[in-house]
Design a protein that fits this description.
single chain; 144 residues; alpha+beta; 22% helix; binds (3E,5E,7E,9E,11E,13E)-pentadeca-3,5,7,9,11,13-hexaen-2-one
Length: 144
């Protein structure tokens, strides 16, 4: 079995809307938090590369919703590596409410990012940085 990277979040009041449930767009934000934490934890050098010519471009992103969540909920955002192809990395996310010893799947999402570099004539595809490739190896559904 391949692993998953878990980001813990407790829903804040300002993430809810007038009817009290979480506004849909925050699920996308949490994907961003999760991947950012992954880089900070497992491949911090990649964040430094972003100060140079290297760019990580989000090329697609989606969320499917199954149940509402509310302020105070403890949610795990469980990220898995879906695939690594060429200069792209695709991730899948399970949003699971973990409370009172129960787990409830609230939503599922996915996104892919492309490794690029800023060249004279715009963005060009770039290889996945070695540090990121190494950090992802243990999550690889093909070789993991
Ligand atoms: C600045 C910016 O756009 C950051 C993008 C971050 C992308 C991070 C990709 C991490 C992929 C991790 C996959 C892990 C699967 C278990």
């Amino acid at each position: 079995m391949t692993g998953r990277y878990v980001h813990h979040h407790r829903v804040t009041l300002d993430e809810t809307n007038v009817v009290g449930n979480v506004y849909f767009a925050h699920y996308v934000r949490w994907q961003g938090h999760c991947r950012e934490q992954f880089l900070l934890d497992r491949a911090p050098g990649v964040l430094s590369l972003l100060d140079g010519d290297f760019v990580l471009v989000t090329v697609d992103c989606a969320v499917e919703f199954y149940a509402e969540s509310f302020a105070g909920d403890r949610i795990e955002i469980r990220m898995e590596l879906e695939r690594m192809t060429g200069n792209r990395v695709a991730m899948a996310f399970d949003y699971v409410r973990c409370q009172d010893g129960r787990e409830e799947l609230l939503a599922r999402g996915r996104q892919s990012v492309a490794c690029m570099r800023r060249a004279a004539h715009g963005l060009q595809p770039a290889p996945i940085p070695d540090e990121l490739r190494a950090a992802l190896a243990r999550y690889d559904p093909v070789r993991g």
